[in-house]
Design brief:
Number of helices: 12
Strand content: under 5%
Order of helices and strands: HHHHHHHHHHHH
Largest sheet: none
Length: 289
């Protein structure tokens, strides 16, 4: 029975990783990234609102549970803002694997430095591969122009990675008190709240976005919240250390789509770098302890 549950969790988390990469691709192809991201969360937020209200009224949770729920909302708001900046100014094949790998790199490193934890030789090898992949993708070598171009998005990439690490850890705890549906709705509300200050609520802008990217909006409205819902269900079935690394299959998939569909440059280097990051994530997550 346990093996069946793990198998289901694996399929859920792999589907989550692929869906996450695809909706990031759709966002990159859109015009106004902040408006696009805001709009794709409206259908799911409205659909889940009755179930969210019903559970929040009936559930009995300690105060700490509500505090963590609000914290999750705030982290999602920051994640949405920095993600929109990153996808606006950076190539998908460059920034996506860095965003996805940085949380896996920092979490065990902080554990070693601040908590006295230990990594196996495989874990240290994994961190080294992630760092090498970052370096190759960053462009922080060679000509000065490449350094300047990469420097524009580095802070946003770092912020996205930190937010990802934070909301995954917080929501893993939140699953003790709330259903995946409630956590998804909080995630949706937080995501939209992070973008709302930068949205111009004028009809012409919304109509223009729908006419230009109607199909992308329809697909994104399913894939974006759906991706995190699949991951929440996977976390409720299995340990975070087991499912989280597997979700990062999207690092290679997202890079491949950026190179193939968006015709971004340096395809061979970026695919190789993303593969290094994904291999490092698996080593840290599965063999690192």
């Amino acid at each position: 029975m346990g093996g069946v549950i793990i198998s289901h969790a694996v399929w859920l988390v792999l589907g989550s990783g692929v869906a996450h990469a695809v909706w990031n691709l759709l966002t990159k192809k859109s015009g106004n990234k902040q408006l696009f991201l805001f709009m794709i969360y409206i259908p799911a937020t409205l659909t889940l609102l009755p179930a969210f209200i019903s559970e929040m009224v009936s559930v009995q949770v300690p105060l700490s549970g509500y505090v963590l729920l609000i914290l999750s909302l705030l982290i999602q708001a920051g994640y949405a803002y920095f993600l929109s900046r990153t996808l606006t100014f950076g190539d998908l094949s460059q920034v996506y694997p860095m965003m996805r790998g940085i949380a896996t790199f920092l979490l065990p490193l902080c554990g070693v430095i601040f908590l006295g934890e230990r990594l196996s030789a495989w874990g240290w090898l994994g961190l080294g591969l992630i760092a090498l992949g970052f370096f190759l993708l960053s462009g922080f070598y060679g000509r000065k122009q490449r350094f300047q171009a990469s420097g524009k998005v580095l802070s946003s990439i770092l912020a996205v990675g930190l937010c990802t690490m934070a909301y995954v850890m917080v929501d893993k705890v939140n699953l003790r008190h709330f259903s995946p549906v409630v956590l998804l709705e909080i995630s949706n509300i937080g995501f939209m709240a992070g973008l709302a200050p930068f949205i111009r609520f004028r009809e012409i802008g919304w109509v223009r976005e729908i006419k230009a990217n109607g199909r992308l909006l329809a697909a994104g409205s399913i894939l974006s919240p759906g991706s995190y819902l699949l991951f929440l269900f996977a976390m409720s079935m299995s340990q975070l250390t087991y499912v989280a690394p597997l979700r990062e299959i999207g690092t290679v998939f997202g890079t491949f789509m950026g190179v193939w569909l968006l015709k971004e440059g340096k395809g061979g280097l970026r695919l190789a770098s993303a593969s290094l990051i994904f291999t490092g994530i698996l080593l840290v997550g599965i063999l690192g302890i």
